[in-house]
Amino acid sequence: MLMGYSFGDLGSIMAMQGFAGLILFSVFVLMALGLAVIFGQMGVINMAHGEFMILGAYVTFLTSRLFTTTLPGAFGAYFFVAVVLAFCAAGLAGMAVEWLLIRHLYRRPLDTLLATWGLSLILQQVYRSVFGAREVGVDQPDWMMGAASLSDSIQIPINGLIVMALTTLIAVGVYLLIFRLGWGKQIRAVVQNRAMAGAVGIDTERVDRLTFGLGCGIAGVAGSAFTMIGSTSPTAGQLYIVDAFLVVVFGGAGSLVGTVASAFTISQARSTLEFFLSGSMAQVVVLLTVVGILMLRPQGLFVLKVRR
Amino acid sequence: MADDTRYPLHRRRLMQGMAGASAAALLPWSARAQAPATAAINTTGLAVTDSTVTVGILHSITGTMAISETGSVEAEKLAISEINAQGGVLGRQIKSIQEDGASDWPNFAEKAKKLLVGDKCAAVFGCWTSASRKAVLPVFEQYNGMLYYPTFYEGLEQSKNVIYTGQEATQQILAGLDWVNKTRGSKTFYLLGSDYIWPRTSNKIARKHIEGHLAGCKVVGEDYFPLGHTQFNSVINKIKLSKPDVIYAIIVGGSNVAFYKQLKAAGVDLNKQTLLTISVTEDEIGGIGGDNIAGAFACMKYFQSLDNPNNKAFVADFDKMYGDKSVIGDVTQAAYLGPWLWKLTAEKAGSFDVDKIAAASPGVEFKGAPEGYVRIHENHHLWSKTRVGKALANGQYELVYETAELVQPDPFPKGYQ
User: Fold this and answer.
1) Would you kindly state where each structural domain of chain A is located, as residue ranges?
2) Looking at the complex, does the CB of residue A293 fall below 8 Å from at least one CB of chain B?
3) CA angle, corner B362, sides to B360 and B364, nearest 5?
4) What is the CATH number of the domain that holds B377?
5) In angstroms, rounded to a whole number, what is the distance separating the alpha carbons of residues A33 and A90?
6) For residue B370, is it within any domain?
7) ipTM for the whole complex
8) B170 and B205 Cβ atoms separated by less than 8 Å
9) Shared domain check, B285 and B214
10) A77 at the B interface (CB within 8 A)?
11) Confidence at residue A150, expressed as pLDDT on a 0 to 100 scale
12) Each residue of B240-290: pLDDT tens digit?
C-alpha cells in the first residue's frame, strides 16, 4: 500500500503515525494506571473502573455547563478545573465504595469481581436515570480541538498532546507517591505483607481506602481527558475496560513499570498494525499475540517479588 | 381509502397518560355505537374488547441500546396518543403494553413471546438493531404476530409478519452515491464501518455501485472497526495518505463520537473533505457535538429540519409532549410511522386479524407522514424519498438534495449481493 507515494508524503505520514502511536500509548497508560494501582496494589479486580472514568467524564460535562452559564469568559480554561474536580469526585466515590462494599470482601478476591461488576451495572443505570440514555456532548474550547501544524503536511492533534501531558503528570505523580513518599512505603508494605504491616502499626484499613480512592481518582482524570477523544454516555466506560485490563494483566499485575511497558508495547503494535491491516484484523492480531505471550509467561511482562 | 388519510395539522390530543379505556369512555356515545362488533374484527383471539385494542412496544430502555431506542419509544407513544385522540382504530382506543428488551437479544425474543402469547397484542412496535429483529422474527412467525420495525437496515429480509418502516440498504445508499458523484464530481471513495452485518452489507452494496455503475469511480480503501472502538488516529492517517474524494462512513454508536472528534483534531476540515455518512442522525450529533461534524453529509430519508407542514406539526407535537429541545432522528420518525400505518391498514382491512393486516398492507399510504407521503410496497418495506442533508454546527441537517420520486424498496437487490 505504500507504492506510488512520494517520499515527502510518506515522511509526513510516518511522523503523524508515530504521534498516533504515542497518543494511543498515553491513552492506554491513563486508563490502566488507576486499575493497576487498585488491582496491582490491593488485588481487587475492579470491574467498575470504566464507570468511575465516566463519572469523571460527567463531572467534566457539568463543569463545562457551569462555566458556559456562569463564567463564559473563563471557558477556555475550564478543562483544568474539570480535571481536578473529576479526580476529587471519583476519588471520594471510590473511598465510599471501598468503605461500603470492598472492605468486606478482601478475603474473597473473586467475589470482588462480582460485586464490582454489579456496582458497574448500578452506576450505569444511575447515570442513565440522571443524565438520560443519550450521549451528552461535552463542549471543548476551540483551542483544544484543533490540530497543530508542524509543517504543511504534518498535523498533530492538540487534544492528543494534552492527553500526553496529563498522562506524564499523573504517571510521575503516582511514581513519586508510591516510590518516594512515606505513604507509598505504607502501601507497598501492606501489599507485601498485610499482617506484618498491621503489626508494625500501619493502619491498613486507611491505606486500603486511600489507595482505592487514588485508583478511582485517576480513573476520573482519565474519563475527564477522554471527553476530548471519545463519547460520554452511561455505558461508554465499557469501551475502555477491556483494554485497561489487557494492559494491566499483560504488564504483570502489581508492577506499575510493567503497566507502562505493556501499554507501550500494545499501543505501538496496534497503531502500526492498524495502518497496514484493517482495524478489526489489527485487534485480532494484537489479542492473539497477547494471549500467546501470556500462555508462555502467565505472570505478565514484569513480576513484583512478593512474599505469598 | 386514499382520501380519508389526510389529517388536520393541529391534532386535538387527549391528556397524556390517560388510560385508553377511560379515554374511550369520554368519547361521544355515537362514536362507539358505530364501531364494528368485536367478533367480526377479531377472529383469532387478540386482545380486543368493545372499546380497546392492545398493542405492544418492545424496545431497549436499559443497556447499551437505550441511547438509540429511547427516541423510538417516544415517537410510538406520541403516535398512539394522537390516534386515540382522533377516536382510535376501528372505534377502539389503543392500549399499549411496554416491555424492555434491555439490549439483550434473547431477552427480546422472550418479551416478544410474552407480548404475543401472554398479552395477545394485535401489533408490536419495536426492535432497533438487526440482531434484535433477527431474534424476534421466528417468534413473530411462529405465533403469527405483526411487527413494525423502524430502523434503516441492511435488507436481505422480508416477512409476512414484519412491516419495515425504515429504509433498506439500497434505498439509503444508491441515491446518495449518485448525488455525490454527480454534483461534487467525486471519483475516489474510502469506505469505513463498524464491524458487523449492517455496515459490511451496506459497504458491499456501495462498492458494487461505485465500481459497477459510476463511470471512472473507484474504492481506494475499506476499513472496519470493532463496535465501541475509540481510537481512529491510524485510519485517519491512512485516509490522509490515500486522499479520497469522499470518506464514506458507516460507524455506529459511541465510536462515532471518537471518530469525528479525532478527525477534526487531526486537521481534517469537513468543509473541504467530503464525508458522506448513512449512520449519523440528529440523535448521534448530540453526542458528537455540532461543531465537530459540521460540513459532513448524511444520506437518509428524514431530517428534523424538513420543511413541510406534516413535519412542522410533528416536531411541534413532539416538543409539546417531551420538552422543547427534543432531538428527532431518522429512526424516530420511522418509528412514528408504525402505529399510523397499522391503524390505516386495520381500517382498510376492516379487521385486526394479523393475516388480514398482512394481506392488506401493500398499497396502504400515509399522507400525514412527517417525511412526506409514504406507501407500503408488496415486499412490506416502504416507498420513500431519499434525502441528503448537510450537518450544521447547531446539530441539525440542512436539506441539500432529495430524490424527485419515491425510491422503490429492494431488499434483495440483484447484482449487489
Assistant:
1) 15-132+151-237
2) no
3) 80
4) 3.40.50.2300
5) 14
6) yes
7) 0.83
8) yes
9) yes
10) no
11) 74
12) 888 899 999 999 877 888 899 889 888 889 999 999 999 999 988 888 888
